[in-house]
Amino acid sequence: MKVNLSSLDTCESSFTPLVVLELAQDVKEETKEWLKNRIVSKKEDGDDNNDFLTMAECQFIIKHELENLRAREEKMIPGYPQAKLYPGKSLLRRLLTSGIVIQVFPLHDNEALKKLEDSWYTRFSLKYQPLDRIRGYFGETIALYFGFLEYFTVALIPMAVIGLPYYLFVWEDYDKYVIFASFNLIWSTVILEVWKRGCASMTYRWGTLVMKRQFEEPRPGFHGVLGINPVTGREEPLYPSYKRQLRIYLVSLPFVCLCLYFSLYVMMIYFDMEAWALSLHESSGSEWTSILLYVPSIIYAIVIEIMNRLYRYAAEFLTSWENHRLESAYQNHLILKVLVFNFLNCFASLFYIAFVLRDMKLLRQSLATLLITSQILNQIMESLLPYWLQKKHHVQVKRKVQALKADIDATLYEQVVLEKEMGTYLGTFDDYLELFLQFGYVSLFSCVYPLAAAFAVLNNFTEVNSDALKMCRVLKRPFSEPSANIGVWQLAFETMSVISVVTNCALIGMSPQVNALFPESKLDLILIVVAVEHALLALKFILAFAIPDKPRHIQMKLARLEFESLEALKRQPSENIIEEKAPFTKEAKRENQMKLMAQNLKEDSREGNKEEEA
Amino acid sequence: MKVNLSSLDTCESSFTPLVVLELAQDVKEETKEWLKNRIVSKKEDGDDNNDFLTMAECQFIIKHELENLRAREEKMIPGYPQAKLYPGKSLLRRLLTSGIVIQVFPLHDNEALKKLEDSWYTRFSLKYQPLDRIRGYFGETIALYFGFLEYFTVALIPMAVIGLPYYLFVWEDYDKYVIFASFNLIWSTVILEVWKRGCASMTYRWGTLVMKRQFEEPRPGFHGVLGINPVTGREEPLYPSYKRQLRIYLVSLPFVCLCLYFSLYVMMIYFDMEAWALSLHESSGSEWTSILLYVPSIIYAIVIEIMNRLYRYAAEFLTSWENHRLESAYQNHLILKVLVFNFLNCFASLFYIAFVLRDMKLLRQSLATLLITSQILNQIMESLLPYWLQKKHHVQVKRKVQALKADIDATLYEQVVLEKEMGTYLGTFDDYLELFLQFGYVSLFSCVYPLAAAFAVLNNFTEVNSDALKMCRVLKRPFSEPSANIGVWQLAFETMSVISVVTNCALIGMSPQVNALFPESKLDLILIVVAVEHALLALKFILAFAIPDKPRHIQMKLARLEFESLEALKRQPSENIIEEKAPFTKEAKRENQMKLMAQNLKEDSREGNKEEEA
């Protein structure tokens, strides 16, 4: 383990650098000494550097150990009297919040990275991604994202294949979209159920399927007045729940509503622009003005992207200010805020065009422009631009390093200097969000613009590569993180697919072909459409309920595992007589229950402060 | 423990009879001897008769121990070469299926029963039931049913209170039912969420909230060809899944569809009768024929009850013939079959009247007759008639016993003879089903007949008493059974409340008052109603998602329990070094996972044959 750059020359020959802990420039000697001692004294009883573990796993252990260095009798950080400590407080967090430690990040393994890149994206060919290798290098969470991206892209192909002839042969013929919308509807239900099963197979292979994460520690940013935690009975910062509720309902909620209103206001300006462009085109009628027709949509798409990004910062600030105790509560509030706004911001204009204006031509044009513009913008902003900046910076650093330090191991020094300046990967949130919006464009309205799926496929093929490039070359290596599934995003995608059933039914009901079947009575038409929609929704819920979340062979393997562990337990002498009896008395039940929980607990740190969800 | 009646006179003075195991009359001596030895040799290492346990708990232990008497080297039941055994086969099951043992049932504790009755139903007064005592005497499953019945009755009171003035003052004025339907809608959503929380508090107190029942043994009726279980690797009967699927899809499904069709056919006959009665009334117009108007509904209600009961037997036979391996799979298939049929059978005519005939007067009349007739029939058939028969039988037995045996302990002999002839309680299924249908009558259409809730409340007040009487005096005491919640019924009630949202919205949309608001455009009206309905359904799902299933104080207590067990574990020397490390390597995860499962497993019998869900 590396503590700071100056200790580089004293390292042993077999030493592999794993994690960088960057200290502020002016840190006092006494603090450095203390920190080094604390880290080393913790390290003595571990045996981390083992061939048995992958590099990403070693880095995860180091992160885990560093985060669990906790204050014992120290009242403050030595040398920094203003950085207060209390027993049990995580040292690393205090060091980070006090600005003494600037960052902690794992180093890339250049050799492994090169191999990974070669099998992943550098040689362009149509093949599946090396998900197991990605998992080995970046951990389960990121591998699952790439797995989902790949699955989703493959799942889009049928839609794209069906959509293409629609575009080529019957462009102006809306009539056929009953079939397309029906297909859309089944498709969006089925792919999500199939994914759940595929995901279970994958995480079973990785050993994280049955992972439990019941115990969470307070998130780093949480602050409060010292008090007694009612669960643990320990002294630690507490923040009253009613204050948080007040902040949520009196500040965050109005702010979100204001943003939603503003977004709708911008949408109205877009429609004014649209009307102005149309009138200009109609009055002049030239070739030039027909291109002008697309300009309002393009501008609107760019404005949407900018608003989404700005809102994201505001949402992060607000959610952080709400002072949630647990990371999961923070994440849930953030995701809710961002999803609601992004959904309205991206789709409000389309809903308005489809169901208020009922202008299918404008809907198609608007959908196409929004989809394509946002995809191009995303690719540029996310990967290509940072990669280019990164490359320029790389050359500069290399030159500097070669000029200054020729005596020590320049490669490692160069690597550390380079990587510490790289951007930080902020988690899979933005990547999933992008896919979520894409899923919306495709499943909600694609029967009007069947090419949407084809564009999405095309985008995702390049997205895989640009995301891979981003992970490998543009950003700091992230710490690996185990996970069992894509979490809240499964729910988000399922909600979107329910909305898409409603939208598609409404679009079918509005189609001229269906309307022609009921020339006299619109009433009957609507009643039938509503009845069909309800039946489809019911079918969707029944399907989701009836299809098992885990494939049969995984269920079998889990059952076998359970059985074998039971057999193993029987062979080992039992310590507890109470379990030999029928397990139903209150005391026996409590006992069993406690043991069960204790087992889960052990998975978490020994020092973890347990608490209920805030 | 009592093996047979003849051993009565040899029992010790402190002996409390708990469970009766009734043998067939002609059982061979050698078999009796063997069975007695097997039971006693098992009993030696237990210490069951402890004041620490309640009587119901002792009985549960005995049942558990009896069911886990398993064949070792025996190839058949001694004395009965046709009753084959294989290692691990439950002896009791083979004895029961071979007709050697007729039944096993726990005895009532007359003293405790008297006390329970006094605090429960014999002294009529308005108070809550002694649920903790009921749980002590009958176990959690039955106590939960009575808890739900009580909760549901109390929850109906606001509906009844609002409904009463509707009936008294505005009987013929449908206009107001917008308010009533809206109230209905919120009510049906809220009560189910509140119940979930109340139920969690209750089962927390009883210690069954966090109970896990992952491991199930094959159900008694399951049969198959001897083969190797892929999970346990043991020799045991197997039945191929595809055969079961064939039986389900080729026989059961068509049969259920046929029954549904038949039920609709009967409904049509009812409408013919209705039309005939109306024409008769119109042609004569006398007072006498106006009573005749109710006759078809009453006959139809009785026919529905009969069909429900007949279908119930058919469904049980079919589901049993499908040869499900697990009791839970059997129960799920049975419940599904019965619920679908009962729902259609009871509500199809009401839906037809409401939405096809749109005759609100007939709907009200039909609803009232169905509800009241079925309630009266149920009360009589379920409790009063059996109680009366029971009483007559009791007197006969008493006389016989007094005449025959004056020398031995006549009370116990009499009790055993009496109780062995009592009916067997077949579980809470029918009781919940009755409440489910009642919930349907009240929540689906009560805005047309606001008195429905009042009748339901009235019925439930007597239902509590007649069910209590049934449990205490009419039926054999059931073995106590732990459970954490009302299981699949929660889902069934929630589904019904979703359907009630749709129905109520449709009724509101059809009301003259609302129609008067849109004199020109029916189209706008329908679109608005559909939009409101979708918004309400969305709100319902969000509410169900947002309201935590466990109250905060229970969450806190569970968290505290978890924390304390963690602390206890820390203090005890750890056996496994691997858990001291960060728990993320594949091996460590598997290890933890296996331990976790092993813990769950121990709650089940040591001999349990583990298998996946069939």
From TrEMBL, chains A, B:
It is found in: Membrane. Belongs to the anoctamin family. It is a multi-pass membrane protein. Residues 580-593, 601-614 have a biased composition (Basic and acidic residues). The gene is ANO10. The lineage of its organism: Eukaryota, Metazoa, Chordata, Craniata, Vertebrata. It comes from the Eukaryota. The chain crosses the membrane at residues 142-171, 177-195, 248-271, 291-311, 334-355, 435-458, 525-547. This is Anoctamin. GO terms for cellular component: plasma membrane. GO terms for molecular function: chloride channel activity. It holds the Pfam family Anoctamin. Keywords: Membrane, Transmembrane, Transmembrane helix. Residues 134-560 form the Anoctamin transmembrane domain. The keyword Nucleotide-binding does not apply. Residues 580-614 are annotated as: Disordered.
